[in-house]
Write a structure and sequence with these properties.
- The protein is 63% helix and 3% strand.
- It has 155 residues and is mainly α.
- Strands 1-2 form a two-stranded antiparallel sheet.
- The longest helix has 42 residues, at 86-127.
């Protein structure tokens, strides 16, 4: 292989191992557009250029903070066309942080509810003889004080 660019490139398996993904993931990244299609050798093997390593690392990091592959594909496409999607990236990150904050608030509410439920269950179990049912699961449905609409029945 006399071509210097091919010597500094990665085969699919090498790139996949280097970044901790499967070769199927690399092919998926190519299909959806977050990774440029790799040129192939005469024998048909994909050869990824060195910048593919940086791109896959960028994609993995962006996924880890909540960006989706379609979002990344769109943003990277804007960048590759010479655009600067930085403000959109910032706005999306803020949206994702807001979603995390809402989920955390929801989880805190569930934690409070579970603590109260366990306290109630402990009291029920203390009043229940061994071998008798305490109705713990049934108490879940009864714990809702007033239901205002059918949509609230299972909340």
């Amino acid at each position: 292989m006399g071509d210097n660019s091919m010597e500094s490139s990665f085969r699919s398996g090498e790139l996949a191992r280097a970044v901790g993904v499967s070769t199927d993931t690399l092919r998926h990244y190519e299909r959806i557009g977050v990774l440029a299609r790799a040129p192939r050798t005469e024998s048909g093997y994909r050869r990824y250029p060195p910048e593919a390593l940086r791109r896959v690392c960028l994609v993995r990091q962006a996924l880890s903070v909540g960006f989706s592959l379609p979002e990344l594909a769109r943003l990277l496409q804007i960048r590759e066309r010479g655009g600067a999607p930085c403000r959109e990236v910032r706005a999306l990150a803020q949206l994702k942080l807001n979603q995390i904050d809402r989920r955390l608030a929801d989880l805190k509410a569930v934690r409070r509810r579970m603590r109260l439920m366990l306290k109630d269950w402990d009291a029920r179990l203390a009043r229940t003889r061994k071998g008798q049912r305490a109705g713990l699961l049934e108490s879940l449905a009864a714990s809702k004080k007033q239901l205002h609409s059918p949509a609230e029945v299972c909340r």
